[in-house]
Amino acid sequence: MKTPTQPFIIALEEHYYDAEVAAHFRGGDPGPGIRKRLDDLGELRIREMDEAGIAIQVLSHGAPALQRMNAETAVPLARRANDRLKQTVDAHPDRFAGFAALPTADPQAAADELERTVTQLGFKGAMVHGLTNGVFFDDKRFWPVFERAQALDVPLYMHPAMPHPAVIEAYYKDYVKDFPTILTAGWGFTVETATQGIRLVLSGVFDAYPRLKIILGHLGESLPFSLWRIDDSLSREGNRRIAFRDCFREHFYITTSGNFSTPALLCSMMEMGFDRIMFSVDWPFMENARGTKWMNELPISDEDRTKIQSGNARRLLRM
Q: Among this protein's residues, is 178 annotated catalytic?
């Protein structure tokens, strides 16, 4: 736990595995060291938090969570998994908070589960991983989830998952053997999740739900770097009128998860402002100490550092 001289740090994208949910996964073994940490919800996790000076982790299930399951499987499983996460949070209420796993194959059930976990279990929002059985989350069938998130005033965290099989075939198959992480953090995750962010803005969901809040990890999946160019291109003749850059900066928050790049952070700060950026590690896929050391040494003011370390998360998640 933090000492009186340490900053108070909240880490927002910190993963775990629920054994019942993970039993449905096929392939993609993260390796024994990472799997050991994903399965741990006590001593090991807290020790590594303490060593890095992290006060609180907001726990979220690792990808693909429930997004590849059919509704009949996912709906009851979501309830059981979220109830177990609540038990974990209750065991260490000063160290853990939770993001819900949602059974998005049934959007109405997902909206109801979001409400149950927020109002009854005290969760801070929800995390959704990639496409739901091949369908992007901006599809109007999923809008009941956005409607409920706005009504509850909680954010939805859009997290990557493996790209669509057709995309893998067209974009990556020539290099997967030698560079398997090109499908994930190397590039595939970024392309898919940035595309989801763009699609959300273009879909009109923020017109329908003007108080909706979305979180993107990994410093916004490269979108802050591209906001000006996307906005300029979409403002040209032949496009439906949309203020893309303004909409993104009004509705999106980003975290530092798994992207400890000072130049990228400074770009994000200039585009998004300090109030829209929050600290995350992406544990256990990244090391806690690597993230906190980088954050503590950044060439920014103490006031802005405090906002990123915990102030913005406290405000957004009402912690």
A: no
Residue 307 forms part of a structural domain: yes
**What total of structural domains would you count in the chain?**
1
Domain that holds residue 210: 10-317
CB half-sphere exposure, 96, CA atoms < 13 A = 22
pLDDT tens, position by position, 127-149: 999 999 999 999 999 999 999 99
Percent of the chain with pLDDT over 70: 98
Q: What is the CATH number of the domain that holds 120?
A: 3.20.20.140
Which one of the listed residues 138, 178, 282, 304 is annotated catalytic?
A: 282
Evaluate if pTM is beyond 0.85: yes
Q: Is pLDDT at 3 greater than 70 in this prediction?
A: no
User: Does residue 5 form part of some domain?
Assistant: no
Q: Does residue 4 lie within any of the structural domains?
A: no
Does 90 fall in a domain? yes
